[in-house]
Amino acid sequence: MYSHVQLNKAYRLLNHGPTILVSSRHNGKQNIMAAAWVTPLDFDPPRITVVIDKSTYTRELIEASGTFAINVPCVAQLDVVRKVGTTSGRDLEDTDKFAQFGLETFTAKEIDAPLLKGCVAWLECRIIPEPYNQNTYDLFIAKVVAAYADERVFSAGHWHFEGHDDLRTLHHVAGGEFFVTGAAVKASL
Amino acid sequence: MYSHVQLNKAYRLLNHGPTILVSSRHNGKQNIMAAAWVTPLDFDPPRITVVIDKSTYTRELIEASGTFAINVPCVAQLDVVRKVGTTSGRDLEDTDKFAQFGLETFTAKEIDAPLLKGCVAWLECRIIPEPYNQNTYDLFIAKVVAAYADERVFSAGHWHFEGHDDLRTLHHVAGGEFFVTGAAVKASL
After folding, report:
1. pTM of the prediction?
2. Domains in chain B with CATH codes
3. Per the database record, which ranges form the Flavin reductase like domain (chains A, B) (predicted)?
4. Which chain A residues touch B140 with a CB distance below 8 Å?
């Protein structure tokens, strides 16, 4: 179903700017939220930045655990992305978003976090502590320590969505409106 | 041709993760380069982050001027994006990339920078000096001080590319391979 992505190619999972889901676990509590503000920061070692608001339950979990996973969702998961992006795990009594919305997961390898099944790529991340950025800008810098992708749409360092429209990635604009990742084009140079 | 975008809606020009061009001017020297690693950081006041490598001529100009412009290019400009992304303005004698590649510009209003004609959105940015982030991570944080968009594809805070396929935005993967911003979809919730 999925295969490992070489760490020096992991930036290609995010380079086209898809909306992602951040999942986290600490002391048995787990959560998942949508985030559009993620971007690569370096190729090798692969580092990324992600903006996580102070008000979120995810913020509490990732600051406590020092880790999180990035899940790259696809068109088939549009409503899941919206659901986990508009509810707070803190408001759920005796359950979590995974149970609440019937989301299946598998286990991360290098960190303790649930990875969402049905996504097309996953990056396991370890936070590089930068308290000033975190407190001033809600900005987290993290090292990617493992990466995987659904080999039907990403292999040998390249996305290939043709024939898999339901597995295309998503780009959030605002208020539940997204663009689907469209046609591949290549510069003539 | 273009209209002002309210500053609290400026993040929507970048939220879907397009590849952008950074343009800059200082003491009569000007340059433009491609960058994929840009993302909103806050809504209001609008702030963004962008990664600008130390080796680039743009880095020299924006650190000297304290400002830069983000130009959001479109499909019609695919080869321009590639050209300005694979050459250095430092290597051009007695000219610059604008003259070299026949690029027309208009003048920014709040900062001193050339804005590239034919793009579909522009954000004028003033750097918030953070020397540690700049030196350690090549990461710049900036405040958006003015924003515009081509009203054929962005108005009232929303992108609407239907009927304007040549004006769709681009998402770089690697090596001159891009995805075009695809179909609009809306979550059912």
Report:
1. 0.96
2. 2-180 (2.30.110.10)
3. 12-165
4. none
